[in-house]
Design goal:
By secondary structure, this protein is an alpha/beta fold. It has 18 helices and 17 strands.
Length: 557
């Protein structure tokens, strides 16, 4: 892990209570960029790719080494500036300012296309930060398990309302960094799952980490295993090595209609994230390098086949939803005009939670000791008593979720509860009940941090889907509040030209200064979700703002 090294190497986050940086916030950032690239966590660590096709933690290995060096030298009243994975400046600020500010993949609107991004990337001028890759708070597939679980539970209820007694199994595709959470979330929600994945290495990783139960490469036998699990009421997940563009239409031809249907391939990046039907992985790599234009056209044609099959399953009674990877747009560009008859998961199932300031809240034990996470689990349940769903989630997570890299956890918490938990974590550190500070962050997919008309802000009540001011204000407000590092990205989840989003991380180091920062930031951040949705006219957000004392000036009396 020494700086000055050249080229790819295995990196893992330091553990323990001793630090190599001048402060714990800098140390936290250093450990988290390493953790993003831990082989247990990252999809292609040799290429600095964390997840999502090309989502990177640093622009190059040389840039990684410089970032590490700067973090180790950074004073407690300085801020490091990182532009698309490259440290570009360091300024004297003040102790409550963020230690790092990051901006990834941002392009002026007229030039915000994949072609222009790739041209600039080839010149070494930018990188794709995804959401939590370039903001150093990715924690592996576990980072999306609860959100997927919540979504599947809501989708199952919606299906049951139309077809009582159904909801026994889910069909999905893509078992990469994000999609890999789906089989485990399905079984935790009491369903069987058939997950289609073309890359056998990804399936093997999910088997090792117990996110999927079994691999069966024959479609007949895979279906038999799934349906047998449904009959027995014994949730089980099956991974099928194949191409979704082949498997989904084949299920339609056979008259097989799952209860829930979605998919989470990295379709947002058709050049890297989706393999066209009829090609092996090796053939796809050759075509990608030789003729990227032809590759993208064939990939989008495959997406059309898959989405058309999903539409037919929807007509036959399945609960079908888009899981926010932009596959509908790509299918529509290939001629599937009805693609958007499939609803997005946020307007269908999650927006009501966003109106309450509720979203993904994740934390990491810098000590590296799993016992510290167990201590935080107890602290969460003590800080937020009387929530049986939260208790069930924590208990399930302790039983079912394997740690990847530094031990970490995620749960969904709302306005007020995030600050309570943050303060409880700071007290754990202060009193020595955990062995080192804790890092608190979230997915960029949160209640008030994203402008993404094909996902988080799809079908807003007031038509403000593409207004990005809210994401920018989120980053600015978290900076003013004293977050430990703040990021602003373009394109994560749905691809270049389709989203702008902000990330926030804050460190609980047991100090009084951290206590003040935690209370400010963990109130401001979810509060942004409430004011964003209140402004759009959502009655739940307006009510919550009134009840919780969140001031929305244009509604103030």
């Amino acid at each position: 892990m020494a700086t000055g090294e050249q080229g790819a190497r295995v990196v893992r986050a330091p553990r323990g209570s001793e630090r190599s940086c001048k402060g714990w916030i800098q140390e936290a950032a250093l450990r988290m960029i390493h953790n993003n690239l831990d082989p247990e966590v990252a999809e292609r660590p040799d290429d600095l790719v964390v997840y999502g096709g090309t989502g990177k933690a640093a622009r190059s290995w040389e840039a990684f080494d410089v970032i590490v060096r700067e973090l180790r030298e950074l004073e407690d009243d300085e801020t490091l500036l990182v532009q698309s994975g490259k440290a570009v400046g360091r300024f004297r600020t003040h102790p409550d300012a963020p230690r790092v500010l990051l901006a990834n993949s941002n392009l002026v609107g007229r030039w915000a296309t994949w072609d222009e991004f790739r041209r600039l990337e080839a010149l070494g001028l930018t990188m794709y930060g995804q959401m939590t890759a370039g903001s150093w708070i990715y924690i592996g597939s576990q980072g999306i398990v609860q959100g997927t679980y919540e979504t599947f539970v809501a989708a199952r209820k919606a299906h049951a309302a139309r077809a009582p007694g159904g909801g026994g199994w889910v069909l999905t595709a893509g078992l990469g960094g994000m999609g890999g959470a789906q089989p485990l979330a399905a079984t935790m929600a009491g369903m069987a799952c058939l997950g289609v994945e073309i890359d056998p290495a990804r399936i093997e990783k999910r088997l090792r980490t117990r996110y999927v139960d079994e691999r069966i490469d024959d479609l007949d036998r895979a279906l038999e295993a799934v349906l047998d699990a449904v009959r027995r009421g014994a949730p089980r997940s099956i991974a099928l090595c194949g191409n979704a563009a082949d498997v989904y239409p084949e299920l339609v031809r056979r008259g097989v209609t799952p209860d829930l249907v979605t998919e989470q391939t990295a379709a947002h990046d058709p050049l890297v994230g989706y393999v066209p039907p009829g090609l092996t992985l090796e053939q796809a790599a050759e075509l990608r390098a030789r003729d990227p234009v032809a590759y993208v056209a064939r990939a989008k044609a495959g997406m059309r086949l898959e989405v058309e099959a999903m539409l037919e399953m929807q007509r036959r009674g399945a609960e079908v939803f888009d899981y926010g990877n932009n596959i509908r747009t790509c299918a529509m560009e290939a001629g599937c005009q009805g693609a958007f008859a499939i609803p997005g998961f946020v307007p269908a199932y999650v927006r009501e939670l966003f109106c309450q300031g509720k979203g993904p809240f994740r934390w990491v034990a810098l000590s590296g000791d799993p016992e510290d996470i167990l201590a935080t689990d107890r602290a969460v349940l003590e800080a937020v008593p009387g929530d049986p769903d939260l208790r069930r989630w924590i208990e399930l997570a302790e039983q079912r979720i394997a740690f990847q890299g530094l031990p970490s956890r995620i749960c969904w918490l709302g306005y007020g509860d995030r600050a309570k938990v943050g303060l409880a974590f700071n007290e754990l550190v202060r009193t020595g009940r955990v062995k080192a500070p804790l890092v608190i962050g979230r997915d960029h997919l949160d209640c008030g941090s994203v402008a993404s008309p094909f996902r988080e802000t799809e079908a807003m009540k007031d038509g403000s889907d593409a207004i990005a001011d809210w994401a920018i204000l989120n980053a600015l407000a978290n900076t003013a509040g004293g977050a430990s590092w703040v990021s602003f990205h373009h394109g994560g989840g749905v691809g270049i030209g389709n989203s702008l989003h902000a990330g926030m991380v804050i460190v609980a180091d047991g100090t009084e200064a951290a206590r003040r920062r935690l209370e400010r930031v963990l109130t401001i951040d979810p509060g942004m979700g409430i004011i964003r949705h209140a402004d759009a006219g959502y009655e739940t957000a307006i009510r919550v703002a009134d009840e919780m004392g969140v001031r929305v000036p244009h509604r103030a009396r």
